[in-house]
């Protein structure tokens, strides 16, 4: 494991993107569901 090869860099970037995407999904999905619930509740009454 001397020098970093492009494949190692690509794998690292993909891991970081997957990690960030996972965090984003964990945050965005409940927020979106809560927002939709509040919007429906407001629209109904």
Summarize the SSE layout with pairings:
Blueprint lengths: L5 H39 L1
Explained architecture:
The protein is mainly alpha-helical and 45 residues long. The chain contains one helix and no strands. The chain has a domain at 17-45. Helices cover 87% and strands 0% of the residues. The chain is rod-shaped.
Question: What's this model, at a glance?
Answer:
This protein is mainly α and 45 residues long. 87% of the residues lie in helices and 0% in strands. The model has no long low-confidence stretch (mean pLDDT 87).
Could you name the key traits of this structure?
mainly alpha, 1 helix, 45 residues, 0% strand
- Assembly type of the chains comes to single chain
What is the helical fraction, as a range of percent?
over 70%
- Parts with pLDDT < 50 across at least 5 consecutive residues: none
Outline the biggest β-sheet. Answer: none
Give me the count of strands: 0
Order of helices and strands: H
Which structural class should the secondary elements be placed in?
Answer: mainly alpha
Mean pLDDT: 87
Dominant shape = rod-shaped
Tell me the strand percentage band: under 5%
- State the distance separating the first and last CA atoms: 63 Å
The number of helical segments is 1
Query: Rg to the nearest angstrom?
Result: 19 Å
């Amino acid at each position: 494991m001397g020098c970093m090869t492009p494949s190692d860099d690509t794998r690292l970037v993909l891991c970081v993107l997957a990690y960030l995407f996972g965090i984003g999904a964990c945050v965005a999905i409940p927020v979106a569901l809560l927002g939709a619930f509040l919007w429906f509740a407001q629209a109904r009454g």
